């Protein structure tokens, strides 16, 4: 009889807790650089529209894992800031698509540049061997994120 499943289960739980804490801390550190006057929800919505847009409001809500009324409020606030605009949907005249404005693209470009620079400065302080480990871990982290996105949209990862 082996304890392998018990050890694996305990290790997985410890790994998940450790990874969660690391991600929270890194996220906080990255957010300190280039703190725009955007809420995390607004920034996330802008990023999703940048990556997958133009999007219908319902598609944005699905990708963001938020309800339609929350998506409506986030989009309205981004419209007020001039970062997104609604356009007619060529395939469905009753619907509209949400897309970034030039100001929306500019704020994301500026913010990502500042945050990337801040994170790059931290990475530059690491030993070469640690940078190599970090680079080796990136595909695994990308797969974790991709799996979540695929499951959320009902797709196979």
Question: What can you see in these coordinates?
Answer:
Helix content is 71%, strand content 11%. It has 157 residues and is mainly alpha-helical. It has a domain at 36-101: Arc Repressor Mutant, subunit A (Orthogonal Bundle). A 3-stranded antiparallel sheet has the order 1-3-2. A hairpin with a 2-residue loop joins strand 2 (84-89) and strand 3 (92-100). Helix 2 (40-52) crosses helix 4 and helix 3 packs across helix 4 (68-81).
Q: Approximately what portion of the residues adopt beta-strand conformation?
A: 5-15%
**Assigned CATH architecture of one domain:** Orthogonal Bundle
Can you count the beta strands? Answer: 3
Q: Order of helices and strands, N to C?
A: HHEHHEEHH
Overall pLDDT metric: 87
- Tell me the CATH topology of one domain: Arc Repressor Mutant, subunit A
Radius of gyration: 19 Å
User: How many individual helices?
Assistant: 6
Q: Which strand order does the major sheet show? A: 1-3-2
CATH superfamily of one domain: Winged helix-like DNA-binding domain superfamily/Winged helix DNA-binding domain
**How would you classify the helix and strand content by structural class?**
mainly alpha
The CATH class of one domain is identified as Mainly Alpha
